[in-house]
Amino acid sequence: MIKCLIVLSKTKATTAMLQKLTLFSKAHFSILLIIILGLTSCGIYTLNDVSIDYTKIKTIKVFFIENKASYVNPQLSPKLYDKLQQKVTNSTKLTKTNSDDAHYQILATVTSYSGSQTVGVSAQQATTNRLTVGVHVVLKKTLENKTEEFDVSRSADFSANLSLQQAEGQLLDELVRNLTDEIFNHIFSNW
What we know:
- With 191 residues, the protein is α/β, with parallel strands linked by helices.
- Helices cover 42% and strands 32% of the residues.
């Protein structure tokens, strides 16, 4: 009978402790939930280091990217334009528009596109070449009546055994992805 009482009292104590722990966990969960809801409902949204005040900024227009480089790859501008549009659509809640009064307006121009010999000179012949692409970006913030301008540039190395045209086929997607990320991060992550 004494063993029964000890087991019964241990069971009651364990149950009481579990109830307190459950109440403690529920309280912490509730507080955490309130904080999360408070942060997301106030209009400032942060994801992947993207910080946009959606209570103010709602629309964006990305203009077609012009190619004014001395050597023009006809695939570069359309690919860069499409990739930037996709990145904005997939990573923000901004509404794309064709209106000239969009809150953010992105204008970009390919300013340089060149191949050069770079690394690993062997028997007076380059073993590696480099393809470099430069883009000038203008960001108009119409609500603030501000304009920001910046340049981005990306390079990719390729074998000297390949022609520039052969290397373009292999490197263009990588360069476009890297340029897109850099433009996006500069605009939306204050880089």
